[in-house]
Amino acid sequence: MHTLFDILISWGPMLLLIGVWIYFIRRSGGMKQGLYFEQVRSYMSEHIVETKRLNTNLERIAAVLEANNHRKD
Description:
This protein is mostly helical. It contains two helices and no strands. The chain folds into two domains: 1-30; 31-73. It starts with a helix and ends with a helix.
């Protein structure tokens, strides 16, 4: 029983801090997850558009390089 009491005494302050932290996070509305989700969604959409644009440019470069290689042969 003595070791259980020691464990509670040693971990008590940490658990109290975690509990208070969770309380304030919930009270403040969390991380405004709806807004955060929209920001991530917008970022991903922009990233997809940029990736497609980059892919198109790389395909054009590859086609030009291939055409130049066939002319040299």
